[in-house]
């Protein structure tokens, strides 16, 4: 078995990972895919991707999503090909990733799993002395065939984000995500804007920017919506609904194909969960974050 680590993936490596993810999804009836970029990691020089190869074929993969400093927790995504499980490949991948985390000073991390996998492996948590968060994260999908929406408000406009918008967006971002500093917000928005795999939009009302939504367009089959936020003053007034619907409709309106739309929402965020369901999104998997028992 050959193990390696890297800060970035080549196009060929990215394709290999996607093929392994599809194989694991089919076997485990899982849906969650990893974010195959280190652009949001706090330390860009930190190795992010870890691989295991048998006879040159990718059979195991792990990645670290570490967008905060060492006081924050790191998300760990890890998969092993079904036919190569119970060979300590996952253990070795985690050992390699753990050494990197400790080298950079991280003390907290959570492993990403799904209900389908945990249900099929009922002893997994106890065998590894892990616990799952009480509330799952729901990954939700809106089929491209179900995107015939009601007319949206004419006084609200969605347009692509521009660099000149960033100073206005930063305080709205920190208001929506108070755990983030202004510097972190600016970095996050700037990197997202510079990424060719993203489409970024702002919501405008009365000539003022009042919200934002980003879309990962890196796959050919779906759009992944994330970073959705609206200024506090305009919440619970239909602004978020209009933002999402207008963003989804922006693609065909600009001669781009409709695709399934996917997003994630914390199970404890009942307001957002209700909003997405009202638009037509349906939960396709329950994602759990696992942590070591205290």
Please tell me about this protein's structure.
The protein has about 290 residues and is α+β, with helices and mostly antiparallel strands. Helices cover about 30% and strands about 30% of the residues. Strands 1, 2, 3, 4, 5, 6, 7, 8, 9, 10, 11, 12 and 13 form a 13-stranded mixed beta sheet that branches. A hairpin with a 2-residue loop joins strand 9 and strand 10 (about 210-215). The radius of gyration is 20 Å and the shape is globular.
Q: In brief, what are we looking at here?
A:
By secondary structure, this protein is an alpha+beta fold. It has 8 helices and 13 strands.
Order of helices and strands: EHEEEHEHHEEEHHEEEHEHE
**Secondary structure tally, helices:** 8
- CA-based shape: globular
The whole-angstrom Rg is 20 Å
The largest sheet, given as strand count, sense and whether it forms a barrel, is:
13 strands, mixed
The termini sit apart by 33 Å
Provide the descriptors you would attach to this structure in a database record:
294 residues, alpha+beta, 13-stranded mixed β-sheet, 13 strands, 31% helix, globular
Per-chain topology:
Elements: E1 2-6, H1 11-28, E2 49-54, E3 57-65, E4 74-80, H2 89-103, E5 109-114, H3 115-120, H4 124-127, E6 130-132, E7 137-142, E8 156-160, H5 166-176, H6 182-194, E9 198-205, E10 208-216, E11 222-230, H7 239-253, E12 260-266, H8 270-279, E13 282-292
Parallel strand pairs: 4-5, 11-12
Antiparallel strand pairs: 1-2, 2-3, 3-4, 5-13, 6-13, 7-12, 7-13, 8-9, 9-10, 10-11
């Amino acid at each position: 078995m050959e193990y390696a680590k890297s800060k970035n993936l080549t196009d060929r490596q990215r394709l290999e990972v996607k093929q392994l993810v599809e194989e694991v999804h089919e076997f485990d009836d899982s849906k969650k895919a990893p974010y195959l970029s280190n652009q949001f990691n706090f330390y860009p020089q930190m190795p992010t991707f870890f691989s295991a190869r048998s006879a040159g074929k990718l059979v195991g993969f792990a990645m670290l999503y570490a967008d905060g400093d060492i006081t924050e927790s790191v998300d760990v995504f890890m998969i092993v090909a079904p036919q190569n499980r119970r060979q300590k490949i996952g253990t070795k991948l985690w050992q390699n990733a753990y050494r990197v985390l400790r080298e950079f000073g991280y003390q907290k991390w959570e492993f990403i799993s799904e209900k389908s996998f945990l249900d099929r492996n009922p002893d997994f948590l106890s065998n590894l002395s892990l616990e799952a968060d009480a509330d799952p994260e729901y990954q939700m999908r809106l089929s491209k065939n179900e995107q015939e929406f009601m007319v949206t408000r004419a006084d609200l406009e969605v347009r692509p984000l521009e660099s000149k918008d960033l100073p206005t967006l930063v305080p709205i971002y920190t208001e929506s995500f108070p755990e983030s500093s202004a510097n972190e917000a600016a970095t996050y928005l700037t990197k997202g804007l510079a990424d060719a795999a993203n489409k970024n939009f702002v919501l405008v009302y009365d000539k003022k920017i009042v919200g934002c939504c980003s879309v990962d367009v890196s796959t050919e089959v779906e759009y992944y919506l994330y970073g959705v936020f609206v200024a506090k003053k305009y919440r619970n007034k239909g602004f978020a609904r209009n933002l999402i619907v207008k963003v989804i409709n922006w693609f065909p309106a600009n001669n781009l194909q409709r695709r399934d739309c996917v997003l994630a929402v914390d199970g404890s965020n009942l307001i957002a969960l209700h909003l997405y369901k009202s638009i037509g999104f349906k939960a396709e998997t329950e994602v759990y974050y696992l942590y070591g028992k205290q």
